[in-house]
Every structure is written in structure tokens, then in C-alpha cells.
């Protein structure tokens, strides 16, 4: 008999997107009597409850609705997991849509003995990409263990205590902390490319895009709690190669002004990454715009990491 799967969805202020997600869950290639959906609504004055109620009324899959007053998605995910009946916990976010084989692929990989299995997440191909946008792309195993698309063995999840309490209230941290807690406990992790979900592509204002790096404030705290996580950092200290070259560029500007212009050459690695490691951008004017727009964003990220490195007494820059 197929394992019973509980799909857990935290939601806040996204009734339309939640509706799209729930309808995608009802088209899964998985028996309706071997799954349930738990929607945990961090109370928002909108049509969320009505949307869930209407979809649940005609659904062969049980859909439970809970209204809560948590401060973020972390406590909501734990709330849902505490009430789950399934031997498999499948976490997905309200701004995603699951492809029909999502559950089947995730469960099949989890059955190989993994404690958790990450799925593949791509920006919704039906939506245009934007210069300033917010979306998620996970094309292989990551050290972040993003809960927008992940499966847990329920017994393992509960044995380690679920999402660590110290990080449950931190946005973008409780999922990473749980993944590393499982690894520390000796469990292995897997990846299922066919467990595919599509993530919404949001258009964002320049101010929102500029300040988004503040969400990385948890990294110094994570590196302190899980020193083994430093193996995923660039040279064990830098969040990424990009932050390392930016810090080097800032040093080059300072020393170039104080000592000798030749030291300005330290800016070159950062320019190379921004202009020649193109990613999805190709047009030269767009690459230059990305460089110019990215400078103040890089400053926000550097300040966020330095400030919280002092707070956590753990250096990540």
C-alpha cells in the first residue's frame, strides 16, 4: 500500500495563488485516499477561508483549514506537521503549483531511505521573467533545504523535534536549520528532479528588491549553530563568490585611494562576475544596468551580514 502523505501549506494574504496551488494538488497522480492537505492560514483579512472551503467541498482529498496568528511561516509549518496523519510530510508554499507527479516522485525518492528529499523548483514558465523580480529556482541539492518543495519522513522529522525552536521565528532559516539538524543526526538527504513545482514570478519594486538581502541576516546565526555549514560557504567565511569579490572590490577602492591606483585592480573579479557570468541576461545594456542596480543591493547585503556577524559572534560576510 502506498504511504499516506500529508501536504502542509502555510499561507498569508494570497487567496488566488493558494487556489491555484490547491487545484494542482487535486490533480496529483496519487490516490486521493492516501493523502491529505493541511492549510495553515496566518490570519489575513481576505478570501482565503472561502477559497479553501469552496475547493474542499468538492475535493476527494481531505483539506483541513486552520486559522492562526503566528508571526511567520515557520510556526505554521510546525503547526501543520504536528497535526499530520501521514508517514510522509510534503511541504509546499502558497505561491507554487505542483506538477502531477510531484508527490509520486518525492515519495519514491524518500523510500530509498533518505530522511528528507528536496524537489526541483523552477520559475513558472507561463509567466514573463522580469529585471526586478522575486521567484525561486532550485535545480539540484542545496544546503538551504527550501520548504517551498521538500519531503520528510515523518518519523525522522518528529524524532529530531521538527523545526528547531531557535530558528522557527526567523524567516528563511527554520528550513535550513532543520535540514542540518537531520544531517547532524546521521540522516542522508536526497533530491528528486521529477518532484517539480513551479514558483510564482513576482514583479517587485526597486525598494523591495533592494532590501531583500536583509533576509540573509540569519546566516551568521546558522553558521554558529551548525559549524559544519561553513563547508558550504566560499572559503568558509563568504556567503558566496559574489560577496567575496564585492568585499575585495571595496577593499580595492579604499586602498587604491589611500595607497596607489594600481590597487584598483582588485575591483576586476567583481566586475567579471557581474558582467561576464551572465546567467539569464544577455544584452550588454542589461548587464551594465544589473551592475549599477546591483551595487546598492550588494551594500545592503554586506551591511546585513556584518551587523549580524557581530550579533551572532560568528563571521559570515
Could you please describe the fold and organization of this structure?
Strand 2, helix 2 and strand 3 form a beta-alpha-beta unit. With 317 residues, the protein is of the alpha/beta class. It is globular. It folds into two domains: 200 residues, Alpha-Beta Complex (Spore Coat Polysaccharide Biosynthesis Protein SpsA, Chain A); 72 residues, no CATH class. Helix 8 crosses helix 11, helix 9 crosses helix 10 and helix 10 packs across helix 11. It is built from eleven helices and ten strands. The longest helix has 29 residues. The termini are far apart. Helix content is 40%, strand content 18%. Strands 3-2-1-4-8-6-9-5 form an eight-stranded mixed β-sheet, sandwiched between helices. Strands 7-10 form a two-stranded antiparallel ribbon.
How would you sum up this structure in a few lines?
This protein has 317 residues and is an alpha/beta fold.
Mind telling me the C-alpha Rg?
Answer: 21 Å
Order of helices and strands: EHEHEHEEHEEEHHEEHHHHH
Shape: globular
The average pLDDT score comes to 94
Amino acid at each position: 500500500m502506498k504511504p499516506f502523505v500529508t501536504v502542509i501549506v502555510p499561507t498569508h494574504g494570497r487567496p488566488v495563488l493558494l487556489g491555484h496551488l490547491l487545484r494542482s494538488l487535486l490533480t496529483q497522480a496519487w490516490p486521493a485516499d492516501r493523502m491529505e492537505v493541511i492549510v495553515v492560514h496566518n490570519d489575513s483579512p481576505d478570501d482565503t477561508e472561502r477559497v479553501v472551503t469552496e475547493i474542499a467541498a468538492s475535493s476527494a482529498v481531505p483539506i483541513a483549514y486552520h486559522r492562526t496568528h503566528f508571526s511567520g511561516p515557520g510556526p505554521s509549518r510546525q503547526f501543520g506537521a504536528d497535526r499530520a496523519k501521514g508517514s510522509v510530510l510534503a511541504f509546499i508554499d502558497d505561491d507554487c503549483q505542483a506538477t502531477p507527479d510531484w508527490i509520486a516522485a518525492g515519495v519514491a525518492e524518500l523510500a530509498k531511505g533518505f530522511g528528507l528529499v528536496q524537489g526541483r523548483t523552477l520559475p513558472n514558465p507561463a509567466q514573463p521573467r522580469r529585471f526586478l523580480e522575486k521567484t525561486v529556482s532550485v535545480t539540484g541539492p542545496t544546503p538551504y533545504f527550501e520548504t517551498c518543495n521538500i519531503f520528510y519522513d515523518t518519523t525522522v522529522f518528529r524524532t529530531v523535534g521538527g523545526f528547531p525552536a531557535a530558528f522557527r521565528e526567523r524567516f528563511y532559516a527554520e528550513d535550513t536549520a532543520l535540514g542540518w539538524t537531520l544531517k547532524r543526526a546521521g540522516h542522508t538527504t536526497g533530491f528528486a528532479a521529477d518532484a517539480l513545482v513551479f514558483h510564482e514570478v513576482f514583479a517587485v519594486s526597486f525598494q523591495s528588491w533592494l532590501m531583500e538581502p536583509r533576509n540573509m541576516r540569519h546566516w551568521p546565526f546558522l553558521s554558529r549553530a551548525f559549524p559544519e555549514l561553513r563547508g558550504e560557504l566560499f572559503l568558509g567565511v563568504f556567503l558566496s563568490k559574489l560577496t567575496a569579490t564585492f568585499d575585495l572590490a571595496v577593499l580595492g577602492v579604499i586602498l587604491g585611494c589611500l595607497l596607489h591606483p594600481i590597487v584598483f585592480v582588485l575591483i576586476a573579479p567583481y566586475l567579471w562576475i557581474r558582467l561576464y557570468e551572465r546567467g539569464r541576461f544577455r544584452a550588454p545594456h542589461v548587464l551594465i544596468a544589473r551592475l549599477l542596480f546591483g551595487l546598492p543591493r550588494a551594500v545592503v547585503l554586506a551591511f546585513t551580514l556584518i551587523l549580524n556577524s557581530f550579533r551572532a559572534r560568528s563571521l559570515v560576510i
